[in-house]
Amino acid sequence: MLDNLKLSFQSIFAHKMRSVLTMLGVIIGIASIIAIVAMIEGQKESLKSSLVGTGNNSIAIMFQSPEAAAMGGSDMVMMGGGEEDPPDVIPTITDEQLEEAKVPDLVKSIAVFYQNYTQAYHLNNLSDSELYAVDDKYFSIFPIKMLEGRKIAPVEHKNGSQVAMINEATRDALFPEGSAINQVIELNKVPFRVVGVYADEKSEEDNMFMMDAGMGKIYLPKSAWPHLGSFNDIPQVLVQAYHSDQLEEAGQVVADSLNSQLPATSTWQYSIPDLQQIMEDINEFNQAFTLLLGGIASISLLVGGIGVMNIMLVSVTERTREIGIKKALGAKRSVILWQFLTESAVLTSIGGIIGVLVGLGGAKAISYFAHLPFAAPVPAIIGSVVFSMAVGIIFGLIPSMKAAKMKPIDALRYE
């Protein structure tokens, strides 16, 4: 076997250009499959992280209609709504209600916030940003790194002060030539003073709310939300459990507690998403999508396999006298067969390895520039290399059998 591997590498490197062109179909096929699976796995992990609370053990509680709840809680009610049928009761969540819902050793923290999109202005500069009106518990669930200034102070949360924290993207858009600290920005024509700038870093918050970490984002006290004229918006609730296996239980306990505070006439209720059903739906979709795109990419492997068979037939023809000499010296059919099978398998395996590297690099580049999640699919990587080797064996079988069946006298006479 070692002699066959040595001969295989000698033959491949003796015809470098031909070998590369032969491997090209395999490389493209494997690279396509790896890139597709990597992007799908990355998206799957991102959705899993946002839904199951991976990392910070948090889950969003939704205030929604019976119809939305029956669909599994897939439609989170955002500020500003967008719902055709508004809720019959706009809930008010007090600190006392939150304390009552906070079960010891189960619920670590509860945060209430509002969310909307807005345009922030400073002089003639404009920034399209996500707007978050948060309470003082929010940053215990989603920590941030300050670059300039400070966080919103507890007294500012309590008094509804018109202060704001902005991220780097918002700062760069509104204050391209100077510091943002203590400068005034306008949100819905209402002035807010900037007290801090925080870093644009991918966080669990971005995963949960499917956001781009590089987009504009502004935080202000939840108590200042009415200053923007938003009196009837629906608050959103985040629940953080002590442990990931307590996540659904913690979310349900808090939802039940908040529901008990609603008027009996309210048809809308707080509920948590059906995480298991959502994950099953995601897995089914990803499997079907992977099979579809994998089938398309496999066409490249088929073309590559045919190319390998063609080149191996050429190689057998070129080495006819070598085969004749080996047979004249007593080499068995199996020896000749395995020599060419090994060469074919090595050729496609090298192509498979290169294809894996190209696929991972391509998927990483796409995820970086398009701000999409990426995950290295280890089973797909191993399977692709094994499959590329199998392609070499299958498509190299006919040329190898042709070489093994040659008669020594005919091979020696070949010109």
What is the radius of gyration computed over CA atoms, rounded to a whole number of angstroms?
Answer: 31 Å
For the largest sheet, list the strands in their spatial order: 2-3-8-5-7-6
Number of strands: 10
What's the helix-strand series? HHEHHEEHEHEHEEHEEHEHHHHHH
State the end-to-end distance: 29 Å
Shape: elongated
> Number of helical runs?
15
Strand content: 15-25%
Query: Could you estimate the helical fraction of the residues in percent?
Result: 40-55%
Enumerate the spans where pLDDT stays under 50 for 5 or more consecutive residues: 74-84
Number of domains: 2
Instruction: Determine the mean pLDDT.
Output: 81
> How would a textbook summarize the main sheet?
6 strands, mixed, barrel
Features:
elongated; 2 domains; alpha+beta; six-stranded mixed beta barrel; single chain; 15 helices; 415 residues
What would you note in describing this structure?
With 415 residues, the protein is α+β, with helices and mostly antiparallel strands. It folds into two domains: 2-49 and 279-413, no CATH class; 75-272, no CATH class. 53% of the residues lie in helices and 17% in strands. It is built from 15 helices and ten strands. Strands 2-3-8-5-7-6 form a six-stranded mixed β-barrel. Helix 1 (2-14) packs across helix 12 and helix 10 crosses helix 12. The longest helix has 44 residues, at 275-318. It is elongated and about 100 Å long. This is Macrolide export ATP-binding/permease protein MacB. It is a multi-pass membrane protein. The chain crosses the membrane at residues 20-40, 288-314, 335-358, 378-398.
